Amino acid sequence: MTQEQTLTEFLIAEQRRVPGATGNFTALVNDIRLACKRIANLVGKGSLADLAGKAGSVNVQGEDQAKLDIVANRIFIEIHERAGTLAGMVSEELEDVWQIPEHSRGAYLLAFDPLDGSSNIDVNVSVGSIFSVLPNPDPAAEMGPAAFLQPGERQVCAGYAIYGPTTMLVISFGHGVHGFTLDREIGEFVLTHPNVRIPDGASEFAINSSNSRFWEPAITRYVDECLAGSTGPRGRDFNMRWIASLVAEAHRILLRGGVFLYPRDDRATARSGKLRLLYEANPIGFLIEQAGGRASTGDRPVLELRPTSIHQRTGLVFGSRTEVEIIERYHRDHNVRRFDAPLFGSRGLFRGAG
Ligand code: AFP
Questions:
Q1: Per CATH, which fold does 7-193 belong to?
Q2: Cβ(61) to ligand 1 under 6 A?
Q3: Among 7, 72, 77, 230, which residue has the least CB neighbours within 10 Å?
Q4: pTM exceeds cut of 0.70
């Protein structure tokens, strides 16, 4: 039997690959790991920790905060703010950039969603934490939103922790994706899923179809064709999934293939999409691309987008490369004029097919 490799050993090996590495990056990833372990512990306690339910507050996006959203956010901040590895932090739960005291400033920026899918906590469905690490582009400049407005392709590390039946940390440093499972007996993440590759050609799609009346024609066409199954143009049956937890959805797709769509739509709240670019779409997109899949706004690779604000939203389509490319093609074909392409309007050919 080969010996298990822990995340600590993996990180040391990674650091050795970089001549002159200071250990700061390794320390940062170690701290992310610690934050995720602490959150996993609380999530695992469920109602026993008296952390179930809503906090009675709303975040900067106007969404109700769960008690665990607030606690998980605090855990991330407390662990990182004096570690000496970061120059600033952005979180789904914070309106502004979190300033790091000058004497503790490091070379990196951290954007995170401390508890993604938090509407699922009270019903005991998988949730997660998502993180994205960027270099600080100008250490001499005053820390503010501008530092974070870098395209996702500049990420040096991204990943998520999933708090499900097991807790896993799935991470990429820009050369492949690796999954580590928390062994609670030894308190360590152990490498269980090295070099994850997304299977292509899988037959599952995930979308919240209650929004279908607001979709663009390209999305309607894609979903209608999937629903038509073996009798339609795709010539095979598809399964539909929707967990309402991006991390859980991304995890399934990384391991089993398929495609996820949260497209922009015609609701006033989702014209630019629903998911947040910096701490949802970019880190998940980075993992997906590193695992051989594709992540797109629908029109173009999501990692190429240059953000204009720290809480910017985007449409997001990701998963098996072939499927995402089909969806991008449909955008090119049908979305020249939104919502009124002849085949897909209210009386169009495909409207009745689903
Ligand atoms: P929360 O973290 O507020 O629960 O949001 C979860 C999420 O951002 C993402 O994880 C899901 O894919 C998506 O929202 C679900 O959105 P709908 O409830 O609109 O389906």
A1: Fructose-1,6-Bisphosphatase; Chain A, domain 1 (3.30.540)
A2: no
A3: 230
A4: yes
